Amino acid sequence: MDLLSNSDLIVFCFALIIVAFLYSSVGHGGASGYLALMAIFAVPIMVMKPSALLLNLFVSSTSFWFYYKANFFKPKLFYPFAIASVPAAFLGGYITLDTAIYKAILGVVLVFAALRLLGLFSTKEKEITAINIPLALASGATIGLLSGMLGIGGGIILSPIILLLGWANIKEAAAISSLFIFVNSLAGISGYLLNGSSFPIESLYFVPVAMVGGMLGAYYGSGKFSNKTLKYVLGVVILSASVKLIFP
């Protein structure tokens, strides 16, 4: 693989396992973490977006399976978000942003992801209330468009919204987010390929590595697993990557 030296590749793969583990444990595909790692290791922009979407597909589907088996998935909460997000993510995947704009927007999104991991946005459960369909549709469309353009699944944004508005508990939000990430990533890749963009073969090499962390994280996360220390470390790493993107 020409993207990374042998020594960097070993460190990258180790970090990739940890990122996939932590994100899948809370029902996420890990795209914001993957993008942060690739930014730190100076992976070309043209490789970052499709690679993150591809890894999202595998890790989020694994995460969803474990949460689904544990009976945390609520279809009625998922459909309003997905109906609006899928076409928006397809459109976002079709759009090719200027490199400077891509880095700036991604950097801001990564700041959000990092601050959430560091505990700035509360994930405490509130009293469950009925979902507001128009608001869910609008949220899904906005997150979907952003997901397709940047190569993220959107779970890092969707989960706090669901919890903040009291539409589901933490485990249910994780189950919804994992499938939400999967369909958005699939739509984003479809739009990306339809635009005539080539898919980097290097992306495929990272899949089995991420799957190791994803399967372990989903298994423990759908149970009672929680590891705040590792999340704080990951939050600092992602925050560092966002600074590198915003202020190259």
From TrEMBL:
Membrane-protein topology: Multi-pass membrane protein
Location(s), subcellular: Cell membrane; Membrane
InterPro entries: TM_pro_TauE-like, TSUP/Inactive_protease-like
Keyword Membrane: yes
The keyword Membrane is annotated on this UniProt entry: yes
Family: Belongs to the 4-toluene sulfonate uptake permease (TSUP) (TC 2.A.102) family.
Protein name from the UniProt record: Probable membrane transporter protein
Organism: Flavobacterium frigidarium
